[in-house]
Design a protein that fits this description.
Layout lengths: L4 E5 L5 H15 L7 H6 L13 H6 L5 E7 L3 E10 L4 E9 L8 H16 L3 E6 L2 H9 L3 E8 L7 E9 L1 E3 L3 E6 L6 H12 L10 E6 L2 H6 L24 H13 L13 E7 L5 E5 L6 H13 L4 E4 L16 E8 L8 H31 L3 E5 L2 E5 L11 E11 L12 E2 L10 E2 L6 E2 L5 E2 L21 E4 L13 E10 L2
Parallel strand pairs: 4-5, 9-10, 9-11, 11-14, 12-13, 13-17
Antiparallel strand pairs: 1-2, 2-3, 3-4, 5-7, 6-7, 8-16, 12-14, 15-16, 17-23, 18-20, 19-22, 20-21, 22-23
Helix pairs in contact: 6-10, 9-10
Length: 510
């Protein structure tokens, strides 16, 4: 039978009850009441993963698009809780859901979910995502119209293993009405400059009926001089955490112009004039064809990447985690975007094969965006979708219908850390990239591999730093496979980078 409960906003006065609910939920997650877990979770308020539970009013209820609720029984008190955290304008994350063991199966979870979904629709979210290691909770979420994006086996003592479920519930989708293609962000990367010039003269190849396309030369002054930049790197001028000072450089001024034309950039991207940016680059490294896709919170860019891999099967997908506000790159001005990177190509030069590969990636992305729009407009025509306009953007809100299963998974090279050349106290370079890896981007690197040699070709001692991991020790994954990228990139010498390391993971497309 259903229990009579009221759902209300949580306050900090509810924290003792919330902590007990969360503790019980974590213990159940491993099918164990092993007491070794208890000290960790009881002190988890000091852990970076659970700082949000120190002050739920500050962490959720005072943040636009986020909220925390509790379910309260007249006699039993607080017997359930759930929260949603804004990830971006389109997506919220369900977090911290728990129901007291003795109250499960009586409709408490359903009442909490009703409040969360109603709030999500009011906020204009298109998707609600979640991660759980509790298989009983995953079964509950599936009954609430969530579908599993991916299921990963995690080694967790003493239960020995645990399945980590990533799930999503669809509430609607967004029409992409304005796409920008930017070349010459770095003025001496001539493929982008050349394609912009071609498409400015003849826009037909990049024109699609369901959206407008802006073709833009990123750094005209640098392109005229055939240099990477004039004063500073334009592709490091778009962080809203540390914006460039007014009139501090030619590129800072250009960044403000682009932000005004296509933005304004914000953490949510809700107010940007442009919906999607494609930024074109080349590298002196032997990277082949690669596509930069944010590791977090850009579901649509993943769909575009999947389409691009169909057009260019050898395409590698690479990226990094982090917030939109901290991202300094030009494609972060829009709510969604990708950056194309091809090589090897000397700066200031052109090569047809790499130009044609770049063109194929761009055209496949545009075709994917147009097909996406056509699908949504067909739902509206059929009466199964409702067209909604909000802040100048168009959305199609639909019943909860998921794409066909299973969800595709992309091999994903997530940036982990960079390594500089070995240097002496005076900053002088002491060693060179080893011939064993030079020109062999994407190969797997282990701790014993030779990365550098001295001027006589002798191995130069070097120890790889560990890959950072944040979280409880028992959830630490096996050592990641590291792959070398941007080996010897000429433009990175001034940045103190000899090569960059990525860990190979999987990126679900949803």
């Amino acid at each position: 039978c259903r229990m009579s409960v009221s759902v209300r906003s949580a306050t900090n006065g509810d924290l003792p009850a919330i902590w007990q609910l969360i503790l019980d939920s974590f213990l159940a997650m491993t099918d164990s009441t092993h007491e070794s877990f208890r000290p960790f979770f009881e002190k988890a308020g000091l852990d970076a993963r659970t700082q949000d539970l120190v002050d739920v009013e500050k962490s959720y209820n005072r943040i636009p698009g986020s909220h925390y609720w509790v379910a309260e029984h007249s006699e039993l008190g607080v017997i359930g809780c759930v929260a949603i955290k804004r990830l971006n304008a389109d997506e919220g994350e369900l977090k911290r859901m728990a129901v007291a063991p003795e109250s499960r199966g009586h409709g408490v979870g359903e009442k909490l979910m009703e409040a969360l979904i109603a709030f999500s629709r009011k906020e204009g979210y298109l998707r609600v995502v979640l991660t759980t290691g509790n298989h009983r909770a995953a079964s509950f979420y599936k009954k609430q119209s969530f579908v599993s994006i991916s299921e990963t086996l995690m080694p967790v003592p003493p239960a020995e293993r645990m399945v980590l479920y990533k799930m999503v519930r669809y509430l609607g989708d967004k029409l992409i009405r304005h796409v920008a293609i930017i070349g010459g962000t770095h003025g001496n990367e001539r493929i982008g400059v050349e394609l912009v010039s071609l498409w400015e003269r003849d826009p037909a190849p990049v024109t699609r009926p369901s959206f407008t396309t802006t073709v833009l030369l990123g750094n005209p002054a640098a392109a005229r001089r055939n240099v990477r930049y004039v004063d500073t790197d334009l592709n490091r001028c778009f962080s809203t955490d540390k914006p460039p000072k007014p009139s501090s450089s030619l590129e800072a001024s250009r960044a403000r112009e682009i932000n005004e034309l296509l933005g304004p950039k914000s953490e949510t991207g809700a107010d940007s004039k442009c919906d999607f940016i494609i930024d074109l680059h080349s590298t002196t490294s032997n990277m082949g064809a690669s596509l930069f896709v944010p590791a977090e919170h850009d579901a649509f860019a993943r769909r575009v990447a999947l389409a691009a891999t169909a057009a260019v099967p050898a395409l590698k997908i690479i990226g990094a985690s982090g917030s939109r506000s901290a991202n300094p790159n030009i494609d972060s001005v829009a709510p969604s975007g990708i950056a194309v990177e091809v090589g090897p190509l000397a700066h200031g030069t052109l090569q047809y094969a790499l130009l044609d590969t770049t063109r194929a990636i761009v055209l496949s992305a545009l075709d994917c965006i147009h097909a996406h729009n056509e699908r949504l407009l067909a739902l509206v025509s059929a009466g199964t979708g409702t067209l909604v306009t909000q802040s100048g953007h168009e959305f199609v809100m639909t019943p909860t219908v998921a794409p066909p299963m299973p969800f595709p998974v992309l091999p994903y090279y997530e940036q982990a850390f960079t390594v500089d050349y070995p240097r002496g106290p005076d900053g002088k370079q002491l060693a060179y990239i080893s011939p064993a890896i030079d020109g062999h981007d994407w190969q797997e690197i282990t701790s014993g591999d030779q990365l550098f040699v001295d001027a006589q070709g002798n191995p130069f001692p070097f120890t790889l730093p560990p890959v950072p991991f944040y979280g409880p020790p028992f959830l630490r994954p096996p050592p990641a496979k590291l792959h070398a990228t941007f080996i010897g990139e000429a433009a990175y010498l001034e940045k103190g980078i000899a090569l960059a390391f990525c860990k190979l993971t999987e990126l679900p497309v949803y």
